[in-house]
UniProtKB/TrEMBL annotation:
Belongs to the GTP cyclohydrolase II family. Transmembrane segments: none annotated. Residues 74-265 form the GTP cyclohydrolase N-terminal domain. This is GTP cyclohydrolase N terminal-domain-containing protein. Residues 295-442 form the GTP cyclohydrolase II domain. GO terms for molecular function: GTP binding; GTP cyclohydrolase II activity. It comes from Piptocephalis cylindrospora. Gene3D superfamilies: GTP cyclohydrolase II. Keywords: GTP-binding, Hydrolase, Nucleotide-binding. It holds the Pfam family GTP_cyclohydro2.
Length: 489
């Protein structure tokens, strides 16, 4: 680990008085509070630890949760290696045998807290809702999930890529946690949770029903089940689990720089990023991904079975609500149709859907950029497409695809015959992961919505793949999107 990391010193009276001031501000009964604080001051006039003082301060202001929530009396702000008898379960990232690798333990449940070997919380971004459920008393803090009947209905066996550093942003054993560590869960009552879940489903999409009715897709009873275009799918939901040294290496930075930025720029949310250099795994509170598989998952690693794939980043406005300003839904649906066709022809189709809204800049940034694009002098032109995003966000894209291929590697993919994307960033990341891409398939012109030519031409000029012409600078300035009131009747 980078030696520039400086662990903050706990315990100062300034810290204590700041906390007291904050707690006082939320207390309605000021008189009662004052007497409680005085009592606390009397009680803590001897040499107490900062944890004692904070515990006393918080009990004086009733921030303790009810008994049923079973938190300890002391608020543990952070931990230090070797402190208070903590003994992390060994976690050897990337070793072949899962039992030697060890489970990812991140729960603060009493049976698990001293054995944590990771930073953060289970559940991706949903850990915050879990906390809220506990705060309002809807969920006991000590709840241990019942994993009866939840095992994957389809086997996803280990692949050679599960060993080593091909996977650093998810736990390749994440779907087998209850099976691999059943003894710890059942006998030792440890709170170990899966970070991957696999299931089977049927799905319908209006455009696919249209494709069946137009005769582009046939009903085969196995992939396309009926004339309504119902599809049979196997799917896996995946939450992020980051092996910090591996993530840092992917981006060519030190682990220390990564830890410091994650600490500082999330509001100091995870002090253990700084105080626990011995913990190498972090479960970030961000969105995960879902894999949709058409065909037979067991043949995905077989390079003689053709594979079509699209890796898609979430765009709620287009994917769900049909906005015409970008190509997201049409490209996604085109990708699904081609995946289904490939599966019907004896191959497989894999869609990976990442929750990285608005190029991982979020919808608020995205809409601010839309406003600026529509209001700029000369209209919404392709030459200013990326500049407008950079003006607002400081960066034109925060998806940084370097971690994306982990999911493909987890599936055992070594070759993609048809890659349904024009993105040079996705393509280069996949190539860096030693996955061969045979053919890159751009979105057909007739599927580009009214307002999206601006986006496509700007992207092609910036390096996105095209089988057609690359626009010139002058050409870009001439490609204009719709104004807000520019309605076609
Ligand atoms: N910030 C921002 N995000 C956008 C905009 N248009 C689309 N997105 C987001 O970009 C992601 C999709 O990227 P696209 O630009 O459609 O394409 P791509 O994924 O880079 O490349 P393809 O695979 O060729 O589609 C999604 O996360 C969208 O929400 C935009 O104007 N501004
Ligand atoms: Zn979009």
């Amino acid at each position: 680990m980078d030696s520039t990391i400086i662990a903050p010193k706990p315990s100062t009276d300034t810290l204590l008085s700041n906390i007291l001031a904050a707690l006082i501000s939320i207390q309605e009964d000021q008189t009662k509070l004052r007497s409680q604080v005085e009592e606390y001051q009397r009680a803590t006039s001897t040499e107490d630890t900062v944890e004692d003082k904070i515990a006393a301060a918080s009990s004086a202001t009733s921030t303790h949760l009810s008994q049923s929530q079973q938190y300890s009396d002391r608020i543990i702000l952070t931990t230090y290696p070797g402190q208070m008898g903590i003994k992390p379960i060994p976690l050897h990232w990337g070793v072949t045998d899962p039992l030697t690798r060890g489970p990812v333990v991140v729960s603060r449940h009493p049976s698990s807290i001293k054995r944590r070997n990771a930073i953060g919380a289970y559940g991706g971004s949903y850990c915050v809702y879990r906390a809220l459920s506990i705060a309002i008393g809807a969920l006991p803090a000590n709840h241990i999930p019942d994993y009866g009947l939840t095992a994957p209905p389809v086997s996803f066996p280990p692949q050679p890529s599960w060993t080593g550093k091909a996977i650093v942003s998810m736990d390749p054993w994440g779907h087998m946690v209850p099976q691999l560590w059943g003894k710890e869960i059942q006998e030792e009552k440890m709170d170990l949770r899966p970070s991957i879940a696999i299931t089977k489903a049927h799905m319908t999409i209006p455009e696919i029903e249209g494709a069946v009715q137009a005769g582009r897709l046939k009903v085969d009873g196995n992939v396309v089940l009926n004339a309504q275009g119902e599809l049979k799918v196997t799917k896996a939901a995946i939450e992020p689990v980051w092996y910090l040294p591996g993530v840092a290496e992917r981006f060519g930075i030190t682990e220390g720089v990564l830890r410091r930025a994650l600490f500082e720029d999330t509001g100091g949310m995870y002090p253990e990023l700084i105080t626990r250099p011995d913990l190498k795994v972090f479960l970030p509170p961000i969105g995960g991904a879902t894999v949709y598989i058409f065909g037979d998952p067991s043949t995905i690693p077989d390079t003689t079975v053709p594979l079509t794939s699209r890796v898609h980043d979430e765009c709620n406005g287009s994917d769900v609500f049909g906005s015409d300003i970008c190509t997201c839904r049409p490209y996604l649906i085109y990708g699904i149709e081609e995946c289904v066709r490939q599966a019907q022809e004896g191959g497989n189709g894999v869609i990976v859907y990442f929750r990285k809204e608005g190029r991982a800049l979020g919808e608020v940034t995205k809409y601010l950029v839309y406003n600026a694009r529509k209001r700029q002098e000369g209209g919404d032109t392709a030459d200013n497409y990326f500049l407008r995003t950079e003006n607002v966000a400081g960066v034109k894209d925060a998806r940084f695809q370097a971690l994306m291929p982990d999911i493909l590697s987890w599936l055992g993919i070594k070759k993609i015959d048809r890659f349904m994307s024009m993105s040079n960033m996705k393509y280069e990341a996949i190539a860096d992961a030693n996955i061969e891409v045979v053919e890159r398939c751009p979105i057909p012109d007739e599927l580009i919505p009214a307002d999206s030519r601006v986006e496509i031409d700007a992207k092609i000029a910036a390096g996105y793949f095209t089988s057609g012409q690359v626009p010139t600078e002058k050409g870009l300035a001439d490609v204009k999107g719709r104004g807000w009131d520019d309605i076609q009747h």
